[in-house]
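Bug report (template v2)

What were you trying to do?
Predict the complex of my protein with NAP.

What happened?
Run completed; filing so the output is reviewed.

Input:
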Amino acid sequence: MSELTSRDLIIQATYFVASILFILGLRSLTKPTQARLGMQQAAFGMLFAVIGTLLNAHILSYQWIMIGLIVGTIIGYPMAMKVAMTSMPQFVAFSHAFGAIAATIVGVVEYRHMHTIDAMGNMPGMSRGVAAAIGFEVLFGALTVTGSFMAFGKLQELITGRPITFRGQNAFNITLIAAAFVSLGVLIYNPDTTWAFYTLVSLGLFLGVSMVLPIGGGDMPVVISLLNSYAGLAASATGFAIGNNVLIIAGALEGAGGFILSLIMSKAMNRSFANIVFGAFGSAPAASTKAGGPTKEAKTITAEDAATQLAYAGSVVIIPGYGMAVAQAQHTCRELHELIQKKGGKVTYAIHPVAGRMPGHLNVILSEAGIDYGALLTDVDDANRVLASADVAVIVGANDIVNPDAEEDKSSPLYGMPIFRPWTAKTVFVVKRGKGTGFSGVENPLFTKDNALMIYGDAKGVLGNLVKEIKALDEGH
Ligand code: NAP
């Protein structure tokens, strides 16, 4: 056995520190108040991992590494700084694609390297264990590359966000998966079977496209999280293939984290994994199929009247949704919250697990505006109990998460999703720009309920008007 040099020891020590920082980062990310710290811990972890890797004695020249670092920074930094919070899911999909390209290329290069005859006329070849690791790596890596680009295209509306389906699609996909596993089996049995290796790469690329085609835009965050998990598995397999401990650990964390997140999201939407992956959600009719549909017209209220009710309310529950994030209305919302509180009212926030476009979307935005985490009700049942005794529920740019059809209309694509019941409060104010539907594309009968009053306009503008009107009440105008 070769002896460990002091350089090897330093590398393993940096990998150890990196792994600890990744785990601490994940732990901190479980609490919105510590989310920034978590990101910093993870970023430092990555710095240690990069330093450890750069110390590797096998690196003969740093020239190409420097070029990659500079080009990557020039492209990546402005992209990450400019991206809007609402475009974060497609940005994440895009960056996964690049991580997966890296893992796939490492796999292909490693395989070629092991199957090239050297100057001495020898071919290193590889063991069955390494072949299995490299096989997994290129299969999951290639699948994540095309799957992530497809998810990006759908969310960015470069291609249709609706599911693309054809007869026998599930059978077709299952055949592709079976063919991929047969190729993997052949590769493990005889690692020198070059055709099996390249078939595996091609099938992975093909599977990424064909598996994402039938999935609707509404389910894309779940798919992205699942692809995240695949990218983690590919990275972990890379770690086994090239003997890199930090890749094994970080990949396993990403693989498990992405999978758990996908499960949490599907549970919050009350959908099974199989239903998301094979169900073609979003292909349902764009309106509720309930007989008659919404017949009543929604009533409106002026900002002045709404402000008077809010100023004298004993308890107010704010339900923020995607529209609050789009309008960046969180700071104005905090101002309104403080004014109501000053007048003696209690303000809480009902935060749905799938409000917005990614898990924790609204938690992050409200925490950014300095809203105390203690004011957030994140459990749907708890929030519904508070809503039932509230004076006013204020819905700010939310729609699907307050759609009563999720409980009442079996034909609705939302049926079964746990939702808030703002109509159980004495009065409901709905802040939205017009008659737009939510992400699922279905109508919402809440807006025509007897105690629901619409305040049309951009969320930031409407909340600003409410703040102005409450201040005017104080000044006796
Ligand atoms: P939503 O159902 O998409 O509704 C957002 C509403 O905001 C729209 O009806 C829109 O109506 C309004 N709006 C848009 N821009 C606005 C602005 N500037 N000012 C005021 N209102 C504005 O949002 P949601 O209630 O948060 O529900 C989230 C949806 O995403 C659910 O269907 C969920 O299943 C899905 N989803 C989320 C996740 C996740 O992780 N969070 C994952 C997968 C799926 P107007 O056009 O009339 O203004």
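What did the reviewer find?
The two ends are 86 Å apart (CA to CA). DSSP finds 17 helices and seven strands in the chain.
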